[in-house]
Design goal:
By secondary structure, the chain is an alpha/beta fold. The protein has eight helices and 13 strands. Helix 6 crosses helix 8. The longest helix is centred in the C-terminal third of the chain and has 15 residues.
Amino acid sequence: MKLFIVEDDPGIVENLTRFLTGEGFEVASARTASGALEGMSGDVDLVLLDVGLPDGSGFALCPELKRRFGVPVIFLTASGDESSVVTGLELGADDYVAKPFRPRELVSRVRSVLRRTGRASSVIELPGLRVDTERAQVTKNGQEVYLSALEYKLLLVFLNNRGRVLTRGKLLEEIWDAAGDFVNDNTLTVYIKRLRDKIEDDPADPAIILTVRGLGYKVGL
């Protein structure tokens, strides 16, 4: 998926580009409204748009981007007051994130908008494993796999972070309130084992959820 950042702060652009690239997105950027109109193309899936730009307002640019490219827009701005939020949404923005924001929250908002606008596939596939997030359905080699709510949430955390090593602390943070279950370090081990038992060909020698000794876990396929 290709994201386009319109932001005049080079530090924010650099940090966001590095983080979003690490999350698997292709990223391009512009620092002005005119630069965005010149640099945008039809293959952009979503725009992250700052309200305050050197040559104009993001509020003015948003409807123009949507008219020309039909692209979803998330506003990024230091102004989180109600009137600004309402203005942005009435101009057609798909979401509104106030600075400073947590990168993981922003990625979650981006993926939510992509799903809502039909630009992100609801199906995630690995060799032998298929996850339909719209139906919350998991199949392995064509056979449906029944997961508990917490096991399913844990699987999605792994699949949404392919290429990254996830510490046990990060996993606990991500699944903390799933299904209302209390999860501590010991029960996390149990849930990972249960998940491997259900999705791995050989749970004793896993190929999907790999242990990274001394660090945590990562998706191996």
